[in-house]
Design brief:
The complex is a heterodimer. By secondary structure, chain A is mainly alpha-helical. Chain A has one domain. The mean pLDDT of chain A is 83. Chain B has one domain. Chain B is built from 2 helices and 5 strands. The relative contact order of chain B is 0.12. The mean pLDDT of chain B is 83. The chains are: A mainly alpha, B alpha+beta. At the A-B interface, helix 4 of A face helix 1 of B.
Amino acid sequence: MNQWQNFTKGFIKDNPVFVLLLGLCPALGVTTSAINGMGMGLATTFVLVMSNTVVTLIKSFIPAKVRIPSFIVIIASFVTIVELVMQGFLPALFEQLGLFIPLIVVNCLVLGRAEAFASKNNFVSSVIDGLGMGLGFTFALTLLGAVREILGSGAIFGWDFVQGDGMLVFVLAPGAFIALGYLIAIMNKFNKA
Amino acid sequence: MSKQKKPESTFPNMVLALLLVTAIAGLALGGVYVVTKEPIAAAKRAKLKNALGKVLPEFDNTKTKKVPAIDGSDSLVFYTAYKNGSEVGTAIKTYTEKGYSGRIVIMVGFTPDNQIERTAVLSHAETPGLGDKIDKAKSDWSNQFNDKNPEQFELKVKKDGGDVDAITAATISSRAFCDAVRRAYKTYEKEGGVK
């Protein structure tokens, strides 16, 4: 597999949300609007790239039996760093996403990539994998957020193009499942072809 | 790729590896905490100042005190604002536990003659598209509280015999908002703010 394929697999073929079905808790929770989905995706991308980088660098020093606890400590540290930095320097964004940042720790996507990819591959591949998976996750969250925002509030990225209320169900939790289900179905159609 | 030899999973190796990982992580977090401490405090101050500015007339100085709420467990924070030494109003940070999804924190500004100046929602977790209309960023519903004197303006939704128009399909959030404002007013009254 060359590096370009390694990078792009996160978007369609192995998309974390639509194909691997990893990290669904934030994917369903934060995507009430496109901008929320994007913010969450980018924060996760940062954590994913950093944790993949560190995990691949130290993989040969960690005994196999304690690798998972070590990965969790590394991931939790980066999440806390993101939280503190965002709180200090981007308070407006923190206001929107603050509640969901700690959730990145329990996002199985991050631990999954550390365990399944970064701990077995070299430095360059791991960084590219983190970047590709993270951006694929961002793409999925933004798309899901956009669909829910368009149908639910008649707006896109906060810009109202329809006056009045949309189909409220898409802003609520059931709408997240419905929208995600249809997106996965469409994605499967393309992946099969 | 050459297969590197990993350390065996012996007890000393595992202890050493975990110790190193956690120690480095701890040091890194400590460093980031020190660097971001001041900006976080500044952002919080700016947020408070911004919230006070939203609910009070122009001011140049504030006095802060904590006052036990007339009911409920938590105390409210009173910010009495002055301009050139004379009192221009009191902002009260109040709360309610009756929100649809937990606690709602609201800042209510009172003028010295006991009218509600303005209100601002500081934090809430109400349903997007329904209950979040209590927030001025989403809807101007809460403007109906502006310039009202709670003596004449019953702080209850119309369904409960009050004067407040509830948000359509979000009566619980509207009730919660009224509950928070009423708590602020009653506590303010007890503290001698209402003459």
